[in-house]
Write a structure and sequence with these properties.
heterodimer; A: 600 residues; alpha+beta; Sodium/glucose cotransporter; 2 domains; 5-stranded antiparallel β-sheet; 3-stranded antiparallel β-sheet; globular; B: 156 residues; mainly alpha; two-stranded antiparallel ribbon; 7 helices; 2 strands; transmembrane (chain B); membrane (chain B)
């Protein structure tokens, strides 16, 4: 890979981020600037910032990777990511903005008047944000490794450092400016190479995507492995290898092979499992069926393009699709960094209109990743062997465009990827930092800076010490936890007078807890088979109904705890237009006078 | 927000009637002060507007669930759809990769329009409780609202 251009792209993104961050720092004076950008952000810029923050590693890299490996069913992710914003608009956007709650714990306390619920909500915010941050940092590591060959942890450390620094230095205002910028960078970075990709596909004679054959190498291909990889060979073939393969070392030969120029030693690979060590280089002849990474079943183009075919070896595809849809529909509203953003709208009406704009921007973006997923099977099938399908967006531009143009496109894609990691990660860091600093450090700007560190370090440790799932799957688990905890809290809290603090507490613990357990089990034991694996890998379909049921039943059983006057007050503020309520009720306290946890 | 039918004036008009005697007509401050002074009034208002907004939101949500949620079910029930082609592309890819997004945006625009209308009607109602300020076209949105909803307030 072209190291210098890739590094240049990374440096430009980070420099622009920090530059705008410092510019923002000069503008932010009061504590409220740090938290909520003083609520003075224009609608389009705010929508760009929301979209920029939302389009994470999962959207930029993960969707293409999953589509490439598992086929059309995976389009449920981008559709769900976008539809989640529609559900948020329908059920949450305006009332939540009007409630004046700045964070989810604020909302819990304001609505239910309970310090206990607030504390549980704070813990859940941190858990969800950390779950969401880990794949961002792992994506950063993968990207930097793909582009420069640096070790995995390096990219994670770079992004975590930049994010903690920016959020500690500038807070929300700078984050808003940066994220607005990042959206347009990401859109450009995925759209421009996509055009070239489609052109390359056409000029290659539009090879069929839906044929009855498994992916084959379009030409003699040397696959360099960054890490120890186990793969399955379905038809015996002879390759040329250097490095360690199946426990034997092969040194490079002096004379390159006449056929593919490889200096590897010819090795006959029989059917079955083979393991290559990190640093091995395997040269495959043209037309050979691509061996797939262990656990990924080779799928014919026909199966890959057909819904519910279970292509790639996913169990129970219909259940998985519905569970993904449910988690993303309902999880979006429970993501801490998404909610904070709504506070930057001046009123409930603006919150609604901004959401529509966000939906438009996201829709345009999500048209593009499937292009990479589909054409990746034609142009870069070796990613199915290395298992790094998440890098399809990064490597395809350079494979399909020769020379300088390809290098520039690859640099652009790298810049977009880093924009994705940095903007989502900074949004998450800010929201966790806000919760930590308000609940633990009395809400001062200095406390916020300290809290940024608290928010950024644990996921960095997790990201560098664990291997990780595919990026979009890992994000899907964060969505599942959010959908099983905050979604019922918000929906019932906003629309149902009968929600009580005890009911909410029970629902948060039951739903969030079960989903979190499923996440932990899935992460520890890796991909599995059968119903138990399907239920654990896509837990939303059962944890969300449980959370709603526990919250509702718990509230009905503790009905006596409802204070009519208090509920009315909150309901009036959330649902009546601002011009009516503004006079009757004092404006919501600014966050430089943080809401105290009085518990009542 | 009952808006409503010509028979039997909406109950809420009776609740807000005393304010018409206030000198100087409507002002946001006066209306708001009323809400403040009469928690019961605010509660009635809030319940009415919550019901309207919730009905609107659930309506759009139901449509979304049927349309988008129906796609995988359709593929499961009618296997021919899985490989159907349209304009040289596979139908599932067209639906999930492209058509879904304009549908989402259209649903969002529709919802925002109606939600703002509900709020505008509500503010208008506060402004002049005696006459019905809603235009006929706008009234149609709430025409199906049953009157008995207001009676339910007394039990709560």
């Amino acid at each position: 890979m072209n190291q210098s251009l890739g590094i240049a792209a990374l440096v430009v993104v980070l420099a622009a981020t920090i530059g705008v961050g410092v510019y923002g720092l000069r503008l932010s004076r009061a504590t409220s600037d740090f938290y909520v950008a003083s609520r003075e952000v224009s609608p389009l810029w705010n929508a760009s910032a929301i979209s920029g923050e939302y389009l994470s590693a999962a959207s930029f890299l993960g969707v293409a990777g999953l589509v490439m490996a598992y086929g059309v069913d995976m389009l449920a992710y981008p559709v769900g990511y976008a539809a989640g914003y529609l559900v948020l608009l329908l059920l949450v956007a305006a009332p939540l903005r009007r409630s004046g709650a700045y964070t989810l714990p604020d909302f819990a306390e304001e609505r239910l008047g309970s310090a206990a619920v607030r504390r549980v909500a704070s813990v859940l915010v941190a858990v969800i944000a950390w779950l969401y941050l880990v794949p961002q940092l792992q994506g950063a590591g993968l990207t930097l490794q793909t582009v420069t060959g640096a070790p995995r942890w390096a990219g994670a450390v770079v992004v975590a450092g930049a994010v903690v620094g920016v959020s500690a230095a500038g807070g929300m205002r700078s984050v808003t400016l940066v994220q607005g910028l990042h959206f347009w960078l990401k859109l450009t970075a995925i759209a421009v190479p996509a055009v070239f990709l489609v052109l390359a596909w056409r000029s290659a004679g539009s090879p069929a995507l839906t044929g009855d054959d498994v992916p084959r190498f379009p030409h003699a291909t040397v696959v360099a492995l960054d890490q120890r990889t186990t793969f399955d060979v379905t038809a015996p073939l002879t390759i040329r290898a250097t490095g360690e393969l199946d426990g034997r070392s092969y040194a490079a030969t002096a004379v390159p092979s006449r056929r593919d120029g490889s200096t590897g030693v010819p090795v006959r690979l029989g059917r079955g499992e083979h393991t290559a060590a990190a640093g091995a280089r395997l040269a495959f002849p043209k037309g050979a069926a691509v061996p797939h990474r262990k656990g990924l079943r080779p799928a014919t183009g026909a199966a890959w393009a057909r819904p519910l075919s279970g292509a790639g070896g996913r169990a129970h595809p219909l259940y998985a699709v519905y569970s993904i849809l449910l988690a993303t529909f309902l999880g979006t509203m429970g993501l801490p960094h998404v909610l904070v953003r709504f506070y930057t709208n001046p009123d409930g009406r603006a919150a609604r209109r901004t959401t529509v704009l966000v939906l438009v921007l996201l829709s345009v973006f999500y048209l593009l990743p499937p292009v990479y997923g589909a054409l990746g099977r034609v142009f870069a099938p070796q990613l199915l062997l290395t298992g790094q399908t998440d890098t399809a967006v990064l490597v395809l531009p350079q494979i399909t465009q020769a020379g300088e143009a390809g290098r520039l496109l690859a640099a652009l894609a790298t810049a977009g990827a880093f924009a994705a990691f940095v903007s989502t990660a900074s949004g998450l860091t800010v929201s966790v930092a806000a919760v930590v600093s308000q609940d633990l450090l009395k809400g001062s700007a200095r406390g916020f800076r300290l809290a940024s560190l608290v928010a950024g370090v644990p996921p960095l440790v997790m990201a560098t010490t664990t291997a990780g799932l595919p990026v979009a799957d890992a994000i899907g688990l964060a969505f599942a936890v959010a959908a099983s905890s905050f979604c019922p809290l918000l929906v019932l809290g906003i629309w149902w007078r009968g929600l009580t603090d005890r009911g909410a507490l029970a629902g948060l613990v039951a739903g969030g807890g079960l989903a979190a357990v499923a996440v932990v089990v899935t992460s520890v034991r890796g991909p599995g088979h059968g119903w138990s694996a399907a239920l654990l890998e896509e837990p939303a379909a059962w944890t969300v109904p449980i959370a709603f049921a526990v919250m509702a039943i718990g509230s009905l059983l503790t009905r006596h705890r409802i204070s009519d006057a208090a509920v009315d007050r909150v309901m009036v503020r959330m649902h009546l237009p601002e011009e009516v309520t503004a006079q009757a009720y004092p404006p919501v306290p600014q966050v430089d006078v943080p809401p105290q946890t009085t518990g009542g | 927000m009952t808006g409503g039918g010509q028979p039997a004036p909406p109950r809420r008009v009776a609740v807000t009637a005393p304010r018409r005697k206030r000198a100087g007509g409507w002002s946001a401050r006066a209306a708001a002060a009323d809400l403040h002074a009469q928690p019961r009034l605010a509660q009635v208002y809030a319940r009415a507007i919550i019901r309207d907004q919730l009905r609107l939101a659930l309506g759009v949500l139901a449509a979304l669930v049927v349309v988008l949620g129906g796609v995988p079910a359709a593929f499961a029930l009618v296997p021919a759809l899985r490989t159907a082609e349209l304009l040289g592309f596979r139908l599932p890819w067209i639906i999930l990769g492209f058509v879904a997004y304009p549908v989402l945006v259209a649903a969002a625009v529709l919802h925002v329009r109606h939600a703002e209308r509900v709020e505008r009607d509500f503010t208008d109602l506060l402004r002049s409780p005696a006459e019905d300020p809603t235009a006929p076209a706008e009234r149609a949105v709430h025409a199906e609202r049953p009157e008995q909803g207001v009676d339910g307030e007394e039990s709560g």
